[in-house]
Automatic annotation (TrEMBL):
One of its GO terms (biological process) is methylation. Keywords: Methyltransferase, S-adenosyl-L-methionine, Transferase. It comes from the Eukaryota. GO terms for molecular function: [ribulose-bisphosphate carboxylase]-lysine N-methyltransferase activity; protein-lysine N-methyltransferase activity. GO terms for cellular component: chloroplast. S-adenosyl-L-methionine binds at residues 247, 268-269. The lineage of its organism: Eukaryota, Viridiplantae, Streptophyta, Embryophyta, Tracheophyta. PANTHER family: RIBULOSE-1,5-BISPHOSPHATE CARBOXYLASE_OXYGENASE SMALL SUBUNIT N-METHYLTRANSFERASE I-RELATED, UNCHARACTERIZED PUTATIVE METHYLTRANSFERASE. Substrate binds at residues 247, 265, 279, 304, 316. Signal peptide: none annotated. Pfam families: Rubis-subs-bind (PF09273), SET (PF00856). This is SET domain-containing protein. Residues 87-305 form the SET domain.
Length: 460
């Protein structure tokens, strides 16, 4: 187990920092959405409990985009892309088994081939030209950060319809992206009850609502002719943020610039590939290098990053098939019991290491950090193991809750069941191994305690 823990430790933590430098879809860190000129925190004036716009199962849809389970508008998109400078491609948009619509190989593709080549003239970035230049000027004047700016830009261009140069692109975007932003508070509470993703989803919904309200109060209400509420409202922002969360790319080779890259954003994610989108300076376009071969007709994949199933659900609205995601992890909360007679002494020992009475540790099906073991050992250590301790007490709080587990309901339920199944599998395995290890430790196996110098000291 120590070996597994060590391996885990060396793979999990670097993953988090690697993500920042890898050309993955939007960073795992939710960007700051607040406006630069808003020193006060973003207000969330709309409750995340069921509201007018979210209370019914039939969420209002925006009047643009298409259903992605059909190939509606895909042909027009491909034609517009090649007319706009996209070189001939070895892939085409088609209906696919994973992700409904995606890119499939038209010819044999070798491992190590560079595919795509989307030129910068086809990127949508914070510097893109607005069909309504006044709208762009106002947002620049208020120094609106990239994400809210891009969300507003997308709505502005979508409402310009045929006079926007992005008309064909926007028509091929999903009318309702798969996103937790469309789940009502009741659905989040009910379906994600057992997952930590529930809290993060609530925060994300709250942030998006707060950002829209901030923009409305500080900017849109002052320029109602440029930003009419019939166009710039909570529903259209839910759509545009849903699009950004599921499609925006961070390009490390362009200093981390974020962009919507038409065509490249038709690629679906697979946990089995490790290739990412990035800007290629030599060919001057967004590319990815295949890490496996494809035959004509096969669906082509990239990786959206080494993300847990919960994070994939949070940003992209899907959960990979059970057992297929080696990056899946669950945060395990551990805490000292207040009733532990050695509570104070244990807390002191933890504090010396900058830890508190409750700590969260990431666990994967393959293992967990050594620090988790040290914490767990300390939590269950009986007084007989230290001269300071009076009687055996303390146990680890393994916070394993079981999930309580038509159309929309069935779909959301399925996502929730998939997420819960994968998270439970990790938790149950961790619980089993931890309990066994802690039993061993009670019968005198103290080696693991040496991993924390301070912890070792208190058992002298
Ligand atoms: C960047 S888009 C990819 C293209 C998208 N399928 C489309 O038709 O527009 C990301 C979205 O594709 C879907 N998707 C991508 N990878 C998936 C996967 N492995 N399983 C299920 N859905 C996936 C999700 O709806 C996600 O929000």
């Amino acid at each position: 187990m120590a070996e597994a823990s060590r391996i885990f430790h060396s793979t999990l933590f670097p993953t988090l920092s690697l993500q920042l430098s890898k050309p993955c879809y939007n960073s795992h860190v939710y960007p700051s959405l607040s406006l630069k000129k808003a020193p006060r925190p973003v207000q969330c004036s709309v409750s995340t409990s069921e509201t007018k716009s979210t209370s019914s199962n039939a969420t209002q849809e925006v009047p643009w985009g298409c259903d992605i389970d059909s190939l509606e508008n895909a042909e027009a998109l491909q034609k517009w892309l090649s007319d706009s400078g996209l070189p001939p491609q070895k892939m085409a948009i088609d209906k696919v088994a994973v992700g409904e619509r995606g890119l499939v190989a038209l010819k044999n593709v070798r491992k190590g081939e560079k595919l795509l080549f989307v030129p910068p003239s086809l990127f949508i970035t914070a510097d893109s030209e607005w069909s309504s230049p006044e709208a762009g000027q106002v947002l620049k004047q208020y120094s609106v950060p990239d994400w809210p700016l891009l969300a507003t830009y997308l709505i502005s261009e979508a409402s310009a319809q045929k006079s926007s140069r992005w008309c064909n692109y926007i028509s091929a975007l999903p009318r309702q992206p798969y996103s937790l932003l469309y789940w009502t508070r009741a659905e989040l509470d009910r379906y994600l009850e057992a997952s930590q993703i529930r809290q993060r989803a609530i925060e994300r919904v709250t942030d998006v609502i707060g950002t829209y309200n901030d923009l409305r109060l500080r900017i849109f209400s002052k320029y109602p002719d440029i930003f009419p509420e019939e166009v710039f409202n909570m529903e259209t922002f839910r759509w545009s943020f849903g699009i950004l969360f599921s499609r925006l790319v961070r390009l490390p080779s362009m200093d981390g610039k974020v962009a919507l890259v038409p065509w490249a954003d038709m690629l679906n994610h697979s946990c089995e590939v490790e290739t990412f989108l990035d800007y290629d300076k030599s060919s001057q376009g967004v590319v990815f290098t295949t890490d496996r071969a494809y035959q004509p007709g096969e669906q082509v994949f990239i990786s959206y990053g080494k993300k847990s199933n919960g994070e994939l659900l949070l940003s992209y609205g899907f959960v990979p098939k059970e057992g297929t995601n080696p990056s899946d992890l669950v945060e395990l909360p551990l805490s000292l019991k207040k009733s532990d007679r050695c509570y104070k002494e244990k807390l002191e020992a933890l504090k010396k290491h900058g830890l508190s009475a409750s700590q969260c540790y990431p666990i994967q099906i393959t293992g967990w950090p050594l620090e988790l073991m040290a914490y767990a050992y300390l939590a269950v250590s009986p007084p007989s193991m230290s001269k300071q301790f009076d009687e055996a007490s303390g146990s680890m709080d393994l916070d394993v809750t079981s999930p309580k587990q038509l159309n929309r309901r069935v779909f959301l339920k399925q996502l929730a069941v998939d997420l819960c199944t994968s998270e439970q599998r990790i938790l149950f395995r961790a619980e089993y191994i931890l309990r066994r290890r802690l039993r061993d430790m009670r019968s005198g196996e103290l080696r693991a305690l040496r991993i924390f110098d301070g912890l070792r000291n208190i058992f002298k």
